[in-house]
Structure formats: C-alpha cells, structure tokens
C-alpha cells in the first residue's frame, strides 16, 4: 500500500512537473533498460537493486516502452541529469542515437556504463559490461560441430535470427555460431551473406515463441531435411520446437540457443534444446553498480578485459550431452545459475 | 485517381473509359459496380493470383501440407481480425485488439496455474475478462462519446502494462497447464491436410458471424450504424447499443483468439502479439472492408488474413529476403485502400 501511495505521489508530482526522487539522501545511480517486460532486464533490475542497497546508493530505474524506443531513454538521461545522479547503467535501444545524450551526461560529470549492448562508438561510454555475443554463438557452434561429427551426420542448418535490422547482438550471435560450426563468415558484420550448402535458410523471429514457430514452419517447408536449428534466444527456440513437434521431427532435429534463462535451462533438461550459452545479467548489473559506487568514492573508472573493448561478464555452455573438447556445465548447474 | 488503381485486377485502357461513360458502361465501370456489390471479389482475386504465382515459383508451395500450414499460421490473427471487422464495419477502429487477446491468454494461464482453478473455469473467466475489456472500450466510445481511435489507444497501453504486471513478464509453459488450455493446438489430419481444433473454432466463428451479419436484425443494424449513424438513429436503431454490443463481442472474440494462441505456442507468453493490433487491421483492410464503415464483411477478412499468410510463407519459399516481405505487405495495403476509394466513387 505504501508503495502504491509512493507511486501515486510520484505520478502526481511528475504531472505537476517536479522531479520525483524518494529523497533518501543517498547518492543516486540510474539504470535504464531496453524494456521492462523482458525477463532478462527484470532480472538485471533485481541485481542492480541488491547491489545498490549494499553500496548505499539510491537506484532510479527507467525503461524504453518497446525494443528500439530511443526517446524514452533520452528522457531518462535528462531526468538523471536533473536529479544530479553520479552515474548510470544503460542497455541502449539505439547504440548510435543515444550518444549525444551520453555526451551531455558526461558534461554533467556522470559515469556512463553500457550494459549488455555496446554503444556506437564504444568509447562514448566510460565502460561496457557485456556478454561476448560472438563467443556465445561460437560455443554452441563448436558444440553442434562436435556432435554432428560424432554422429557422422551432414548438417542442414536453419538460422532463426532476431529481425531484419541486422542489429549487433543478432549479427554477432549468428556469425559466432557459423564460425564455431566451421562455416567461414562472409562479411562478419552481415547476416545471410554466407553461401554455404549446409545453410538451408534464414528467417526472423522477433525473439519470441510465435515468431520462432512461424519461422521454423516456413523453413521446414523450404527444406524438409533441416536437422540443426540455431536460434537467437530461448523463447524463439521454444517456438521452433513446437513447429518441429507438429511436423513429427522433434526427435531428429537439434536446437541450439543462447540466453540461459530458467525456462531455457528447463528446456535443456527436458531435451527441447540441445545446448545453450548462458549469460549473466545479474553479474552485469552488480559489477556496473559497484563501478558507480567506486567512482563516487574516488573517481576511478572501470578497466576493460584485456584484448577487448568491453568488460566480459562471461558465457557458459549448458548441455546434458557434453562433447569432447567443448567445456560445458550440465542443466543442474544451469538451474542454480539461471536468470528470469 | 483513375482506373489504374485496379492494378492486377483487370487490364484496361485508362483513357477510353473516361470518355465512354455516357454511351454505355465501360469495362472499368462494370468492374467498379461489380466490386461495389461484392467487395470480396477483389481480395479473392488477389489471393488466387498469389497462390498461382507462388506455386509457379516454388513447387513446394502448392501442397496440402503447406497450404494447411498457412491456414494454421493465420488462425490467431484471423480470429482477432474477426472482432476488428465488426468494429470497422461501424466506422470505428480497435487498436487494443492484440493487447486484449494476449492479456486474456496470460490471465487464463495465471488463473489455472497460479490460482489453481479448474481449466474450464479459468478458460471461462479468461473469456469474461476479454469481454469486459471490450465492454470497457464500448462504454468509453458510447457513453463518454470519445473517438474509438483515442479510446483504444489508451486502453491498448493500459492492457499491455497490466499484462506485464500480472504475468511478471514470465511465460507459463504448456506442460504446467491442464490439457484443455492447449487443446486448441492439437491437430488432426484429413488426407495431407493438418488442421488444429483452433482453426476449426476460427472457421466456425467466421461462419456464425457471416450468418449473423447477413441474416439477423443485429447484423443489419451494424451495417446501418456504420454507413450513417445519424440516419440509423433517425430510423429508430439504438445506435449506442449496437456500438456497445460490437465492442463487447469483439472483446470476447479476442479472448478466444488468446486461447487459440496458447494452443499454438504450447505456452502463454506475455511478450508475443505486440504487432497483432495493426496486423488485424491489415487483414480487415486487405479483405475489402471499408475503414469508412458500412461496407465489407467477415468473409473478406478471412481472405485478407490468408493473403498475408500466403505472402509471408510464399516469399520465404521463393527465397525473398525478410526485409522485402514487409515491403510487399505494405504495398498490398496501399493498393487495397486505393481500390476501396475508387469503388466508393461509383455512381449509385
């Protein structure tokens, strides 16, 4: 009830044109996610909140309305500047368009940290804490290659990507998977330019179940001999599985995916997904908040992982069908470390 | 605009017709009259031509398995578009259609999984919630006299945000739900055709509303209200009541669409369907129903939904890149609306 009152109060104040700060007197840190509906960001928010409580910071959270909503994020940064926040974490909806706002935040003396998705250019943020998406794709590619070599099967691959816009996370996962599987990348910044007979086709899923199912159905019509399916994320994989099941092909087609959400790990345990690359959103958020707290104390900024232009928060292959030469943990470990 | 708008429907000189109107009806005018009387013919021609074209491009396209797949893929959106048609026939529009469908599906899942209700009760409650959301739209449109566009723009946002709150943004898996919830996704074969119970429900609903709009007083009132609300009111039709009934019934249809969606995905996901609001309008417009109200019907909407499905599936099989699939659908919509404008210019 008190929370409801606080929200109601905030709305009233916001309508009256005043900034709404709970006014705990603690220094303010911000978290701006792409949306507040995706479990990945919901988890990230939880992790950031816990870390902020530990560090004695007040966390203000904002989110875009939908994926790609840059405007809400620009407004969030304006708000944080007016609050006099020390710094903020942002998962940019539009890596290029957000840069002018980041520059304004820098002028106001704030620490800017990109989470999960780098900004463009990457040095427009003080640091980036992210999953190495290329590496995440590469791991499931290597796993699939080893599995198919062991079974002596010729792969026919369906590529279920995100959307037509060739955004960086989509491109890196797709290209990483192909490289891991041993299919040379054409242009490493472009999806769909590899002309390899093992690739049956690409389609887009919007990263959800419905898109995954429709895309898989259509690709199966195009090439009924598909036996390996790469998916951008686990909801798309769940949808793809439904299409395979309807076609009676779920037993002889292998699905690989990326995310490490709890429903996805469950799907690894019950054989829907062969292997998935787990990422660590809680760790991302915790490290980010700690960096802001450190900056508040003595003005030091975080350092990137050696040889990369970001701080790699790690990926872990999860599978119950381990292959020689590809390091992996089983779904039981996955259950303990999953998110969402 | 001239007869050139008939793109792909007929081939005729655009000049001759303009001068021969007084002597006898030109071919173009006859087409115009025919379409005015039977708005379904245009979309039907597009659908048949598209099927023929895609069959030539890829032999796989014209097979029982693939064609029944297209029907399966459009089942959810067609059910939602059925409700949307009723509203557009009254010259309204419902931007919250997809939000009601997805939110209803999430509510059903939460009722049986979180609240532990029996499946039948959860399902009926889900339908009731969808109906209530439709009724809310109807009340705001008729009582407070707000334009439907604004009302449903507001409720769309409200329903989607409640959807996130109630579901906690988490998907409920089909294996955790009673079989009745996912029954709509169960399939049976007739020859090479695979039909799901969801598709059967959808077709039955279309059959019923085809009858209701064409053969009942309520149906006539819907058309009359859409054609000219003032004239309808003067003729003794209680237009407020008709509008309220249309939004309410649409809400129920969206909720049924939500149930079919659970079957298709074998889960209830709060993160799907964000584009259903506009997709349902696309299907209605492609089906020849006029956005100005009073002209069109549900049969056209089914064809409109199938056109989108055929194009998406056919272009994928033809190896067309995804980017251009959206382009093609958008172009079709513009042609459909232009055609509608041209038909409306018919001299009575």
Automatic annotation (TrEMBL), chain A:
Gene3D superfamilies: 3.40.50.2300
Keywords from the named record: Signal
Record's subcellular location: Cell envelope
Record flagged with keyword Signal: yes
One Pfam family named in its UniProt record: Peripla_BP_4
InterPro entries tied to this protein: Peripla_BP_I (IPR028082), SBP_2_dom (IPR025997)
Signal peptide coordinates: 1-18
Top-rank taxon: Bacteria
Keyword Signal: yes
Residues covered by the Periplasmic binding protein domain: 30-299
PANTHER family per UniProt: D-ALLOSE-BINDING PERIPLASMIC PROTEIN-RELATED
Family note: Belongs to the bacterial solute-binding protein 2 family.
Protein name per the record: Sugar ABC transporter
Organism from which the protein derives: Actinoplanes ianthinogenes
